[in-house]
Amino acid sequence: MSAVPNESIGPCLADGAVVGPSAAEALLKGIIDEYRRPLHRFLTRLLLGQQDLAEDLVQETFLRAWRNAQTLAADPSKIAPWLYTVARHVAIDAMRARQARPPEVSLPDLNRVPTTDDEMDRVVSVQAVRSALGKISPEHRAVLIEMYYRGASVAEAAVRLGIPEGTVKSRAYYAVRALHAAIGSTESS
């Protein structure tokens, strides 16, 4: 508000306080009342329907009108063309500013991002696998225990289980599929 000297706003007391509304204030109030909605429609069309940005730019236009109140008061017939020209320039500046900076990105919802250090998730996973292991065949379970829990290679698992390596590979493949299916049925119940 310091852009317009106090003398142009209204009469002042010795300490600088403004007394009552002046002609400039009344003019600005009239401008706002008369042009707020038409300027908003004009800017909304210019901005391809961006209502929030149009509202911000209407406010910017009226701020510039307030700063130039003396000029507008000198020739009231030029108020409308001046306002629409300023509004158009403000809209162009806003669009250029948006094009100049990188597009805004949305941040991921951190409540949904899994953490690797979550002990409770690990406990739940272990319990789900244990429960599902009981639902698959003993042959498949034995292969999974040898290969994934004891860390045995295909050859070592074949020797320990007393079956050919090809059978270990086949059982491991079908055991993992059966385990996935069993875990899925465990989670839904």
UniProtKB/TrEMBL annotation:
Keywords, alphabetical: DNA-binding, Sigma factor, Transcription, Transcription regulation
GO molecular function: DNA binding; sigma factor activity
Pfam families: Sigma70_r2, Sigma70_r4
RNA polymerase sigma-70 region domain location: 32-99, 132-179
CDD domains reported in the protein's UniProt record: Sigma70_r4
Keyword Calcium annotated: no
Domain of life: Bacteria
GO BP term, pick one: DNA-templated transcription initiation
Matches recorded under PROSITE patterns: SIGMA70_ECF
Family statement drawn from the similarity comment of this UniProt entry: Belongs to the sigma-70 factor family. ECF subfamily.
Name of this protein: RNA polymerase sigma factor
